[in-house]
Amino acid sequence: MTRSTTIGVLNLFLAIGLFQTPPARADEPGYDRKEDVVYGRKYGTALTMDVIAPKTNANGVGLVFMVSGGFFSSHAAIQPAFFKPFVDRGYTVFAVVHGSQPRFQVPEIIDDVNRAVRFIRFHARDYKVDPDRLGVFGASAGGHLSLMLATAGKAGEPSATDPVDRESSRVQAAACFFPPTDWLNFGEPGLEKLRATDFDPPFRAAFDYRKLDPTTNLWIAVDDADERRAIARETSPITHVSPDDPPTLIIHGDADKLVPLQQSESFEKKLREAGVATRLIVKKGAAHGWPGLVDDLDQLVDWFDQHLAKAETKAKAKAARVAPADQVETRRG
Asked: Whole-model pTM?
């Protein structure tokens, strides 16, 4: 992997945002943005999100934006290019910054984004959104986290001391770009990604699985292959597919060498087999990200319009069933 590719992956959202045309009146955007809302804490560190709400014509639907590329997350990556198309159509966007690699690993990051959804649902009335109409979107690692929420979001813990933790982390619709979905069959059946060294250097820290030794109080490496395989299985969205999963849209390039198209194809197939409404758009000749990717955000917005924007779609989102086989599309990048 070249240095330029590495920078592009880890700062995907920031890089896209830098090349956008700013609003005609930069001091008067069509939205209100509240920055650094604390949705949780761990090890004395605050976990934050930005809440971006339209000034007019809000539709009462919340969209959770996974700010993550290569499981690297940064407040600087919350750029208008990636949230404005949604806000312009009336959605309130919650841009979630998770505990980032290289300090935190994938299982811990998944815990963070589950906490974020619980927080949003608990405070839904404060943010004027419907707690039963929450969607999620992201790209690459952000796509993986979106699909983990879509397939493995959990019910709240009724006896939790913190009332936020009593809320569910389930979402009602998902849309994403080029997501990893299966660490045990990555690119081909049986090709496992179990160890940090199975990944390119910029991403290894996220998969350097460790656990706390209660005797020494030190974080020690998880060396047992079966234990690592169990972690890989648990953190693979495809493992959790079930008939009650929400409608899911994926856009993926057929020239992607970082996350193989196979990851989306096998995931979409399993969703259809489970009877879940799904759509896979294949971008012909597109790699891991492509020029003009922000133009494809409108397709994500359309997806949320279809499945979330109207109040009566609340029940429909829950009961959605299989889309026709021809919902898999190939388009030119």
From this structure: 0.88
